[in-house]
Design a protein that fits this description.
The chain is an alpha/beta fold. The protein contains five helices and six strands; from the N terminus they run βαβαβαβαββα. This is FMN reductase.
Length: 186
C-alpha cells in the first residue's frame, strides 16, 4: 500500500498555538500508512492580490501551491477569530484556489479540526471553513468533528495533547481522511 502524503496546515500564526499542537498530536496519532507534513509557511504568504497572481507568483505562493498539489489530502486545524476562520488561513486558501482552472483544491480530500480556549471550541470557524472549501469543490471529511473546546485544559505546558477523548477523535479523523483518499488512489 502506498504511503499517503498529508499536508497539515495550522490556521494560527501564534507561537504556542493549540492548533499547531493539535497537528503535532495528529502526527503522533498517525494510524499508519500516511506521512503528515506540517506546513510552516502561512505567515510568509503575501495578502492575496490578483496583480501578484501571475505565471511567476511570489515564492511562498508557488511553494504552497506545489505542496498542496503534491499532497494526497490536507489536514487543517483552525482557531476561531470573530466567529470565523483567521485571515491568514483564508488568505492561504485564496492563493491555493487560484487560478481556478489550475487549482489542486477541487476534489482534494480535506479533514478539519480546531482548538480554542472558548466554550464552543472552533465550531463556527469550522462551519465557515467548510463553506469556503465546499465553494471551491474540495472533498471535506464530514465526521468526526474535532472541535477542541477549553483547549488550555487539554494540552500541557509543552503543547502535548493530554486529553484521551480528543486524541481518539483526532485518530478517527485521520482514519476517515485516509478512507476518503484511498479509493481515489486506486
Amino acid at each position: 500500500m502506498t504511503e499517503l502524503k498529508i499536508l497539515a496546515i495550522s490556521g494560527s500564526l501564534r507561537d504556542g498555538s493549540y492548533n499547531t499542537a493539535l497537528l503535532r498530536a495528529a502526527r503522533k496519532l498517525n494510524p499508519g500508512g500516511m506521512t503528515i507534513e506540517l506546513y510552516r509557511g502561512l505567515g510568509d504568504l503575501p495578502l492575496y492580490r490578483q496583480d501578484l497572481d501571475t505565471d511567476s507568483p511570489p515564492e511562498p505562493v508557488a511553494d504552497l501551491r506545489r505542496r498542496v498539489a503534491e499532497a494526497d489530502g490536507l489536514l487543517i486545524a483552525t482557531p476561531e477569530h470573530n466567529a470565523s476562520v483567521p485571515a491568514a488561513l483564508k488568505n492561504a486558501i485564496d492563493w491555493a484556489s487560484r487560478p481556478a482552472a489550475e487549482s489542486p483544491l477541487p476534489g482534494k480530500p480535506i479533514a478539519i479540526a480546531g482548538a480554542s480556549p472558548g466554550a464552543f471550541g472552533s465550531v463556527r470557524a469550522q462551519q465557515a471553513l467548510r463553506q469556503i472549501l465546499a465553494s471551491i469543490g474540495a472533498d471535506v471529511v464530514v465526521k468526526p468533528e474535532v472541535t477542541v473546546f477549553r483547549s488550555h485544559e487539554r494540552f500541557d505546558g509543552e503543547g502535548t495533547l493530554t486529553d484521551d477523548f480528543t486524541a481518539s477523535l483526532l485518530a478517527e479523523l485521520l482514519t476517515a481522511l485516509a478512507g476518503t483518499i484511498r479509493p481515489l488512489t486506486r
